[in-house]
Amino acid sequence: xxxxxxxxxxxxxxxxxISSKGEPLxxxxxxxxxxxxxxxxxxxxxxxxxxxxxxxxxAGFEQxxxxxxxxxxxxxxxPGWERAVVFQEYALFPWYTVSENIRYGxxxxxxxxxxxxxxxxxxxxxxxxxxxxxxxPRELSGGMRQRVSIARALAVNPSILLMDEPFASLDVQTRxxxxxxxxxxxxxxxxTVIFVTHSIDEAIKLSDRIAIMGxxxxxIEEIKTVSLERPRDPTNPAMVQLAAEVKVWLRQQVFxxxxxxx
Amino acid sequence: MSTATREGExxxxxxxxxxxxxxxxxxxxxxxxxxxxxxxxMVPPQPSAGRRLFSRITQFxxxxxxxxxxxxxxxxxxxxxxxxxxxxxxxxxxFSAALDLIRRxxxxxxxxxxxxxxxxxxGTACVIGIPLGLAMGWFPRFRRAVDPxxxxxxxxxxxxxxxxxxxxxxxxxTQIVYIIFLAAFFPIVLxxxxxxxxxxxxxxxxxxxxxxxxxxLFTTVVLPAALPNVFTGVRVGLGIGWMALVAGExxxxxxxxxYLINNARTLFRSDYILLGMVLIGVLGLLLDYGMRRLxxxxxxxxxxx
Lengths: 262, 305
What we know:
Order of helices and strands of chain A: EEEHEEEHHHEHEHEEH
Number of helices of chain B: 15
Oligomer: heterodimer
Largest sheet of chain A: 6 strands, mixed
CATH class of the largest domain in chain B: Mainly Alpha
Largest sheet of chain B: none
CATH superfamily of chain A: P-loop containing nucleotide triphosphate hydrolases
């Protein structure tokens, strides 16, 4: 049991990507942030600002060129279940049924069979998929697939949950519904969440704090705290005000600083 | 509405049935059993077994027309060209040739010998080719090392191997199996390789972030993801191997459908030649059908795609 001050600690992260022409490109430059225990932390920014790169570093899919990221006091060297990921395109295993997908990480953890079955049932109930246990992913709607993906990630009991634009491929109604569902789940079973999105409204609705990234090279320009009560009403003046502020600020960032975006 | 008409079911008849049931159902019901009943009422009724059989048979009308046309050309063409007797015997002659060979008890031997050689050759190609292809697809450095050798051997046609293979293996089954093996091997390797190489990176990442070790990643993600491609490879390999049968049995086979064709050639029995060709076609079709059934059995998640 690690009881270090913050579960996530990123210091002086820089990441260089090599373009197809062989030129080095600075995708992230000197990114620093900390995330608190059970905090809902969002990363927003325009496309190409490096927010997905940052999530890939947190997940351990890529290594930072400079700097280091620690989770629970341990340096990240590769992917692992203590940092489970929910992907935009669900990434469910098509050859496994709903319950086999959720069981996948539990099997890798070598949990006893009875314990696996108990957890699978619990998480199927939590995400509201009872009755769909033996369906294959392609037989489900987008929203249901994303529920399976969330259940699969939560089932391994990660110390942080990484979400990479998880609702971006869903239609507007399903997206809003899934946001509410995610909040309910998160409030019932608190968890440190790092949530990447390009939607400022989504970030404001869900998060405790929002890291706003500017483009080229990606860096965290500002971290805003949202201290409104949940569930949050998007028509609440305070939320409207906050969203407008962030949008105006981001537009200035994108259009004034970056001639390529004009 | 146009869809319903095209399916052969009057649209208003369907609508009437639906309205009837929908009236009985509570408006906006959520009861699964009730919903299933409503759904069933909207589907046109299953055609009777007789009708299904009839439509199954009529599906082959073009094939039947082809055989009939062949018969007509062979029979009526004989008036204008007496050599047509040898050049293109009619289907009936092919049929009586088959009866003739069955009566002499050799037809089944030819079929079984050929099937045995092809299945042995393709089986061996699978045992070597699938692991090799998967390894090449999954380990890029291994692929880069093996690729030049493979691409150098691949363009050499199996026919060109025949003289050397006779020197190596002598005359007999081994040499024939070797030729068929060469034909089947490359499609199996290359398709397996493509399957393992093109695994969705997000599935790999999902697996790793859920704690899979390298061996588990391979068996739970790479293998099932590559399976459809592997199957395509085996199907193509089986098809090409079957086509190579005649070449394999060309020179020195004591039996088999290829032997039947080659032997008939020296005897000027074109009815036997055609019989051999027809049997190769029909058996090839059946083998491919069996492979597709097997694929559905092994990959249930692929059903209905």
